[in-house]
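Methods: example folding runs. The two proteins below were folded one after another, and each record is reproduced exactly as written to the output file, sequence line first and structure-token line second.
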Amino acid sequence: MGLFTPRYLKQARNLLEGATKTLHRYRDILSRDHLLSLEQGIAGLREGIATKNQAALEKQSLLVEERFASIIPANPHAAWTENVEAIVVAVALAIGFQAYFLKPFKIPTGSMQPTLYGMTGHPDSEPMPGPVAQAVDFIRLGRVHFDLSATTREQILGINEQPAKLNFFTFSDIITTAGTHKIFAPANALRDFGVKPGRVYEAGESIVRGYVQAGDQVFVDRMSYQFATPKSSDVFVFTTENIHRIEMGLDPKLGSQFYIKRLAGVPGMTLRIDSPELYLNGSIATAPQFQRVMSARSGYHGYSNPGYPAQYLTTPEESFTVPEHSFFALGDNSYNSSDSRYWGIVPEHNVIGRGYFVYWPFSSRWGFIH
């Protein structure tokens, strides 16, 4: 019967299928208002297909296209993104049936280094690699190379990070007395190059030269905790909802965020830190994951007693007992981690799942997370 279906109806059905898939793909990162707007558009399109009114259906199709275009902008790096997505699918299939229960997640910061890496900048004075080598670096290691120099004597006035546009990095505007440089990197990575307000560059001097390393992309196992209780030493992902000291520092428009940390304390467990060691219920933590951090080797530096504005475990004598239905989170990069020492416990209902597998980039950390 499809042979006799009007062209406008076929196009509308194809649009409905594509819009539904796109909404499903980006549902977790859309605001409530944007989600409602797109859902209403899809509902109207589905109703128009049912009535088969050509004029109304064409009008609704245009509305849906405009809404998706304004809320989910086109990806300027679609070719690279499609290649990476193909790799992700292959890895997911190789892992087996658990792929159906895994959620992709990007490590945003360096709080879990060197176990997991966030986005980092790496200054480099060596000659820039050629286009092919740069493409290989991105696909294999998640590196994007830059060679940005001052065109004249210019001073940094500010750095404006743009909202994420569904890429692996966000764009940032480096605003100077000579104009604005747009660069495909987050603001925190630019700080690794020494880019900061007030700094002056002479004509021809490098502003950003080197590469930015993508944060580790991981699968989060969302099923295990449906059948087993989270245990101390797990790497786990949770939302920041109702964790007030985190929410105070977030843009309300962004809503709840996802964090990834090491689950250090479970309900009833008493924690204490006597740097570099972590004590659980009065004894030094024995799990290999904690021992690795406390060894202060291979990039680890041990656990630290934080100063102000931390709330808990600020001195070697201070202890904290985790209340019921809560967890205490610590970053493996203890000296540079905002965790439960600063903003308190993680409510049990905030837990999303267990950090499971680093699927990209293909670095030494590729594989199962420990």
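Second run, written to the same file directly after the first:
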Amino acid sequence: MLASSVQRSKPAPYPSKARSALVRRTVLAVLLVGALALLTIAFRSPTSGALHGLQGAGSSALRPFQVAATRVAQPFKDAYDYIDSLANAKARNAKLEKEIAQYRSTQLLNAERARQYDQLKKLLHYETGPEFPTGYTAVNARVVSFSSSPFAHTLIIAAGSSSGLAVNTPVVSGDGLVGLVSNVFPDTAVVTLLSDANSYVPALDLKTMVRGVVHTGPGGTLILDDVAKQLKVNAGDTIITLGTVDPRYPDLYPYGIPIGKASNPTATDTASFLQVQVAPFANLGSLDSVAALVKTQKSK
């Protein structure tokens, strides 16, 4: 029995390639014919018929699954929409902030240019007006910098000895007196301001013709000093430079440069002089352009 051979069954033959291709083609043809038949039935009965009933039944059967799928997908859709809108909002916000910064920069630049233009316009008006002192010519100069020290009231201008400036050259703005040149270089000069503690300007009340000296008083304010208390100085009177009274002692400032406006003229019983505050016409802390008054001939 061990030596006897066992008869094995023959394996089933594999279908041939031609047979497999024929089956696939047949199935495809049946599906195409079925699809055409369904389309024909659907077009011939657009609103009723067995096919539409079958479609309605299928839709009703699948409706719960569609609702469930929509509800499951809705949170993810909402999250995506939120993240997308947040990203877009951040991008728009960054763009708007950049545009606002540009607008602000342009606005500040235009305001600065307008302020410089206004000062130059006032300078030109002063130079061509009747108040400009005779025997002088104006050398317009740009203000380079102000002193960084709180105890030194000076500024530097972009004009020097090469333009005719010298020590003690008067400097004005389009509004009034600024100060004197205290140091000069070929292309720049240092100007000591009217508000400096060492500045003394012989002055005149243009209305009452009362004389005095303008200098810095207590608290750093300008005052008209050396005015006898029996004399009259009114609040609002214009104070100007006195100029040269005696040719033997020429003054540093020519006659008639506006200095400021008088205010609060008072006098105590024990004081010998009036106490008169002077508000300067020139904005000494915000100057962009000034004019140095260079002599062309001997002033009267």
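Comment on the second run: The first strand starts at residue 136 and ends at 146.
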